[in-house]
């Protein structure tokens, strides 16, 4: 008998441009909320661009989310489209980029993260002030609940 833990049914990848602001914050918030809701979800993040590969998240994200952000920036790879069940784009530009590179064997559902809630993009906070980061944090909280509400029903009926 194997004692190894089963793989989570839901594997979500949060994607923004640089992977130093919105998506590392989204990754940490989604993980935190899934844990608090008792859901076993694997969460990661990446960027569509490679400008900041290897960098730690912007310190304004840490300040606003009050969570430990462990990710180091990485760029999306075609293998992500089969490794993850859900790819959550922060805005329409990133969604278009993802759709344009989606391989024919992709199994992940690729959507605007906001499409699980109000269809709104997460605005890029990089060149603005702390207030923009606070808004991103609040939006990530709402979108995490909306995403988990959506997938939980499907997971129960094996439609993930
Ligand atoms: P992110 O924010 O996509 O939320 O990580 C940005 C980070 C860096 C840049 C733009 C957006 N940049 O132009 O370097």
Automatic annotation (TrEMBL):
Q: Does Glycoprotein count among this protein's keywords? A: no
Gene name as annotated = lmwppp
Q: Is the Hydrolase keyword given for this protein?
A: yes
What is the annotated signal peptide range for this record? none
Task: List, for all copies, the residue spans of the domain called Phosphotyrosine protein phosphatase I.
Answer: 10-150
Domain of life of the native organism: Eukaryota
The annotated active site, in chain numbering, is: 16 (nucleophile), 22, 124 (proton donor)
Per its record, how is this protein called by name? Answer: Low molecular weight phosphotyrosine protein phosphatase
Q: InterPro entries from the xrefs?
A: LMW_PTPase, Ptyr_pPase, Ptyr_pPase_sf, Tyr_phospatase_low_mol_wt
Q: Per the database entry, which stretches of residues form a coiled coil? A: none
């Amino acid at each position: 008998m194997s004692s190894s833990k089963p793989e989570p049914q839901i594997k979500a990848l949060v994607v923004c441009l640089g992977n130093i602001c919105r998506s590392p914050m989204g990754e940490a918030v989604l993980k935190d909320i899934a844990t608090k809701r008792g859901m076993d979800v694997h969460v990661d993040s990446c960027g569509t661009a490679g400008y900041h590969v290897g960098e730690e998240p912007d310190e304004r994200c840490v300040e606003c989310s009050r969570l430990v952000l462990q990710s180091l920036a990485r760029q999306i790879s075609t293998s992500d489209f089969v490794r993850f069940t859900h790819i959550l784009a922060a805005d329409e530009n990133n969604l278009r980029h993802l759709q344009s590179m989606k391989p024919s064997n992709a199994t992940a559902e690729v959507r605007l993260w906001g499409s699980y809630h109000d269809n709104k993009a997460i605005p890029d906070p990089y060149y603005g002030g702390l207030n923009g980061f606070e808004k991103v944090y609040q939006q990530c909280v709402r979108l995490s609940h909306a995403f988990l509400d959506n997938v939980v029903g499907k997971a129960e009926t094996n439609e993930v």
